[in-house]
Design a protein that fits this description.
By secondary structure, the chain is mostly beta strands. Helices cover 0% and strands 15% of the residues. The chain is globular.
Length: 91
């Protein structure tokens, strides 16, 4: 395991890549903690992103799906995955 567990981009059962830690240093999806039970559970095996596209949730600009995209959310039942591309700034 790497020194920073988030460097491996763990996929949580809510569909998002982990963006923070809980009080016990376990990866979590901070956007879904408290509203989705899968926000605290890492999936056993990440699916392949081959041939998948992801769209920015604000501007719709598309990129190839990638675990490293900011706030990436894997949406297997949708045509596109989701992420944020910085179109509204980073502050």
């Amino acid at each position: 395991m790497s020194e920073n567990p988030l460097a491996d981009h763990p996929l949580m059962e809510c569909g998002c890549v982990a963006t923070g830690y809980d009080g016990n240093s376990n990866p979590v999806c901070v956007a879904h903690v408290g509203i989705h039970p899968g926000a605290r559970k890492v999936v056993a095996r990440k699916p392949s992103l081959d041939e998948r596209r992801s769209a920015c949730v604000y501007c719709g600009r598309e990129d190839r799906s990638d675990w490293t995209l900011a706030f990436f959310e894997y949406r297997p039942d949708c045509e596109r995955d989701a992420h944020y591309d910085g179109c509204r700034g980073w502050d």
